[in-house]
Amino acid sequence: EMSRRYRLFRTMMLLLGRVFLGFTVYGAEKMPGKGPLVVAANHTQYLDPVYVCMAIPRRVQWMGKKELFVLPFRPLFYFIGTFPVDRGGGGRAGLRTALNFLAKGWALGIFPEGTHRTGEGSREAKSGTALLAVRGGAPVLPVFVGERPGLRARLRGERLRVYVGDPITVDANLRGREAYRSAADDIMQVIYALPGRSSRESP
To answer: Which of 52, 51, 74 has its CA nearest to residue 64?
Structure first.
């Protein structure tokens, strides 16, 4: 359940987002209302975790590299439900924490590309997304976050659009890093295809 403070924060962000960014969500009804869930999104802007939290009406716990947890941003990361992962140390403690959240029926947020990307660079996914889905017995909810419009673009009527896709069930029999990585790559392809698919489905 969302805490009262978190619910208030999310409501305020939605109001501000709609006014200043034209924040619009497509497909939010596709999100499972309960049970373990891996929320997988693209990551091209530093505020993407906030935008996903605004789009998903569930409390989302995020995996974040420990280097992010520095002042003055550390309190914000903890507030929006981010827990640190030591990727240099193999990330096993973070994996255990993530699986514990899934075991309790939480929604877990993750960026399959592992870090924030800009431009048309590599979109290769890490294996963790599929691994968590298999070991946590959770479907993957693909989410695409569009580009935040600048002031001039906003005055032209452009919006920050977020697209939510249908939950993906990862084969529970997958084993091995390469199999997990291949499944994660397939998930990334679904994520980046969401804007085009949504426009085709619109009346």
So the answer is: 74
Q: Are strands 140-145 and 60-65 parallel, antiparallel or unpaired?
A: unpaired
What token pair was written down for 147?
């580009």
CB 170 within 8 A of CB 190: no
Residue with tokens 């889905």, as numbered in its chain: 133
Write the secondary structure of 68-112 as one string of H (helix), E (strand) and C (coil).
HCCCCCHHHHHHCCEEEECHHHCCHHHHHHHHHHHHCCCEEEECC
Say how far apart CA 149 and CA 169 lie, in whole Å: 33
How confident is the model over 3-48, as pLDDT tens digits? 888 899 899 999 999 999 999 999 999 999 999 999 999 999 988 9
